[in-house]
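Need the bound structure for flavin-adenine dinucleotide, inputs here:
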Amino acid sequence: MEKNSAIIVGGGIGGLTAAIALGKKGYPSIVLEQAEAFAPVGAGIQLGPNAFHMFERLGIAQLVQEKCSYPEAGLMRDMYSAEIVGDLPMGDAMIKRYGNPYAVVHRGHLHNVLVDACIRLGNIELKTNSKLISYEDKTNHVIANLENGASLSGCVLIGADGVWSGVRKQMIGADSVPQNLGYFAYRAVCNSDDIPEDLFENTVTLWAGPGFHIMHYPLEGGKLFNLVAVFRSARFARGESDYGGPDELQEIFASAHPKARRLLEFIDTSKNWNISVLEPIKDWSCGRVMLIGDAAHPMLQAMAQGACQAIEDGVCLADFVEKNHGDYQKAFLATQNARQMRATQMQYQSRKYWEIYHAAGVYSELRKKMLIRGAAEAIESVAWAYDPVTWE
Ligand SMILES: Cc1cc2nc3c(=O)[nH]c(=O)nc-3n(C[C@H](O)[C@H](O)[C@H](O)COP(=O)(O)OP(=O)(O)OC[C@H]3O[C@@H](n4cnc5c(N)ncnc54)[C@H](O)[C@@H]3O)c2cc1C
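Answer from helper R.:
Posting the output first, comments after.
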């Protein structure tokens, strides 16, 4: 199967979805994952209705939905006063308008559904401990060179290797390396029993402050509670070397509302994520190599759409491979054509929302004016993101 298979680099949400979408249409693939197991960071992820439109097409919507929880609303609270300054109805209102739910799920559970779907298809080879270090485009096939010394050949190579994509770096060069935005994220998933009742809400809640925020939502039907705390590091901005640590996290949140500070007590301070950005790249493919997901269009998490967009990429690519009777190079160009403006709009809107989240002073008053509106208007405002997408 090797030479006819597409080599997919990265067994994240994007890589696995692309493998399933191709596999369902009879196109085999090999998924190379550098880690020991297909097991993402143990945190939650939000899935907009647009992700479920894709899961329906892959025949796994029901399986994913069984693992999900369903928040009643997306709330924005002012970091200092706890006042609600934005309200997006979710629950039944989302299903009624978009035909699919807004859901949250543990990444590990979503991954299990995707890995099982790959195994069931029978034409997808999943390889762990397989870190790609370089590839060679041989015009009529590609070779993937792995860190463990092995080389594999395939008909094409799909870089689904995330925001720090090595495939992108080889394809485009060092200019395509993301830049540190100076923000740092800490996460946690805890038992909901440990969360005091007055802090628990069945909502996706964002506490928004100038240059810092907390996001939380329950998982597993309320058994678990997912938290993310993010802040802009003043030390990084001043060019100091000791930045982004737990001490700075505490310093920045010292001025927050007491409830937000109590939520911070549940954050796992053993590891942080540096938030990086990359301007949209012009070409997603070169010859027999294509980028998808965060490798092609990394975005800030403010719209909670990075994974949703990676999922759309995989489905779209498989549609064009089928439409072009297995001519991947034509499919690569068609996929970029169909997807680039949507992904770029997500990148752009995510940056805009990032600013709105972190608005200060009078801008934060404007934010409230903009975001407090009727339920129907609020739910309609995201139609561009959640309505089903089609590609010709
Ligand atoms: C704090 C935070 C919250 C977020 N919340 C949401 C959300 O709620 N909803 C949402 O849609 N998105 C969210 N995102 C964004 C989302 O996580 C990403 O957009 C999504 O994971 C991208 O999927 P991907 O498959 O393209 O890349 P990744 O998930 O990064 O997967 C890449 C995979 O490639 C592997 N890999 C990398 N290099 C190599 C190599 N050389 N060889 C082999 N394997 C390799 C990695 O180990 C990894 O498994 C969030 C991001 C952050 C940081």
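Comments: Residues 64 and 96 are 19 Å apart (CA to CA). The pocket of flavin-adenine dinucleotide is lined by residues 9-15, 32-35, 45-46, 131-132, 160-162, 166, 185, 228, 273, 293-295, 301, 304-308, 310 (CB under 6 Å).
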